[in-house]
TrEMBL record:
Domain 4Fe-4S Mo/W bis-MGD-type: start-end pairs: 1-53
Family, per entry: Belongs to the prokaryotic molybdopterin-containing oxidoreductase family. NasA/NapA/NarB subfamily.
Taxonomy, superkingdom: Bacteria
GO cellular component, one term: oxidoreductase complex
The protein, known as: Nitrate reductase
Upper classification of the organism: Bacteria, Pseudomonadati, Pseudomonadota, Gammaproteobacteria, Enterobacterales
Keywords: 4Fe-4S, Iron, Iron-sulfur, Metal-binding, Molybdenum, Nitrate assimilation, Oxidoreductase
GO molecular function: 4 iron, 4 sulfur cluster binding; metal ion binding; molybdopterin cofactor binding; oxidoreductase activity
Cofactor(s) in the UniProt record: Mo-bis(molybdopterin guanine dinucleotide); [4Fe-4S] cluster
Parent-record interval covered: 1 to 692 of 880
Amino acid sequence: MKTTCPYCGVGCGVEVNADAQGWRVCGDAHHPANAGRLCVKGAALGETLTPAGRLLWPQVAGRRVSWQTALDSVAERLQAIIQRHGPDAVAFYASGQLLTEDYYVANKLMKGFLGSGNIDTNSRLCMASAVTGYKRALGADAVPCCYEDFTHAGVIVLVGSNAAWTHPVAYQRLVQAKQQNPALRVVVIDPRRSASCDLADLHLPLSPGSDGALFNGLLRWLAQGGYGDSAMLPQLAQVRETLAAAADWTPERVARACQLPQSEVERFYGLFAEHQRVLTLWCMGINQSSSGSDKCNAILNAHLFSGKIGQPGSGPFSLTGQPNAMGGREAGGLANQLAAQMDFTPENIDRLQRFWHSDRVATQPGLKAVDLFQAIGRGEVKAVWIMGTNPAVSLPDGNAVAQALQRCELVIVSEVMRATDTSAFADILLPAQAWGEKNGTVTNSERRISRQRAFVPPQGEARPDWWILAQVAQRLGYAAAFSWQHPAEIFREHAALSGFENNGRRAFDISGLAQLSNDEWDRLQPVQWPVNADFPQGCARLFSTRRFYHPDGKARLLPVAPAGPRVAASRRWPLMMNTGRIRDQWHTMTRTGLVPRLLQHYSEPFIALHPDDALRHGIWPDALVRIQSRHGWMIARASLTEDQTPGTLFVPMHWNQQYCAEGNVDRLVAPWRCPHSGQPESKQTPVRIQPW
Ligand code: SF4
């Protein structure tokens, strides 16, 4: 059986076969994202297909009940809260683990029929700044590039990304591209010397959060050196203002701001300027920042101004963290957008009302993830339905999140696992189908839609997320609009909506898939959107014609005033803490924690710090240490390494209560967020450290 890996946004195709030992998982040699490769997490997927720890049946108030009772209870209690307090008193919090069909139904129910914008997703923690950056620059949340571009690039810039660990198969493709083309230059921009630096011709260990200054300086360098693309310039708006905003960012000033040698800054600028085919890959080091959207636009400015977009080997390429972060964006999973990537405009609201035959479509964006849980904490949102994610571990300011869930009037959790940090707060627990059991589509970082296929029977009474949502919608009185019997029917509706009154104005258009039969949907081959009359076979690269999605067809440069972390390190909080993934674990370990061999890389949380900092704070190698921020504390073992820049820490984000009660780092992370994207600043939290 061919399906798709449920972990990172590379979106590798996998083949699953049964043998005497159990499930054998290998890479799908024909899938364009990975051509047969898998990383260690993907290769271990077969070992996660176990009943151990699964949530097997619905529960209400801790007691096993029938699906009928559970669904009635969800509908009655949501209805009662809406009647008393209005639709904005309820919220959904979804996940990049959901399939696009699940997302479509969740969004349709909340924004289309309950009448609130209050559905957000853990993709807010991952991609929201990139979405804002793309929309402001290109007029659409449309990633221009594809993995194939690795083989065409002359320079590849990895910024805020340790792809070697977080997107391992994409990194393997980078390694292969460099082997095939030794002239390819790789620049890694990251405060720490990560595993990805093994491939780097140039590593810029800039000070945490100074990326905006670096890319503003790059724009100035391009302008001063005459590297603007004269054919592109007529297609750009706000050029003068943006260049003016960058005018003071001389290499000397950038070097000071980034704490880098000026010669290294200029070397990077020279590589970017001199090569026509430059690909910039970025990830959470850029997005998870209180100025994340502006950092994304600083990157986009440089690419647009120099015309490095829309051509093979060239472009600004954000790597998504999750298997279906992009599918969620397409289906309206973010609180600030409607279905099919439509914005909240009167025209789009009217369009949705007519398409869905509903007069209750939300007219205002809802609460973004951090704001949503703060509103729960204040008692303004009284019911939350959490689907396929573990916010008690993964959201910043974790202690406040736990308190919010504790006081929330109604917490509904749809989950695969029985005992998560979040399900401990649930009034109603609904068993959802897991990878291998559920059936639908996902979209990876390069806009490629692939199928996740079911090949094992569901454990216990687990049901698809879309089915659970549709059953509740029917009980709420919306039977006609939620009457699907098969996920292919939902996909067809989603595809038809993407093309509804589109006429080339919206980037996301898969109307060419709206007529698939159930069998054709089941056999769907990986394809990059758009898929429509212009691109019946999909489209590898966007913007090759240099026409963008703003109404005037132009792209926008955006004046950027570089900002550092919201709160700088100080005498009291002298170290800047960075959180991130390690190679062999996924999110809060509810699945990868089941596989003993994945704990061989790191079996416990750790705090990586420079030996000079260790000496200064009396920390011995491998000693247990306590770190504290304004928001919380944790304990883990010190890992001394010169890969860390002095003054910085790195702590993995994965450990939950089950695997290490004192090792959850998100309790320390501040809830500060980008004002444009709402994405929290998970990469820069001032902390202090002491032996434990
Ligand atoms: Fe899965 Fe990502 Fe590894 Fe591919 S690189 S096998 S998608 S975790």
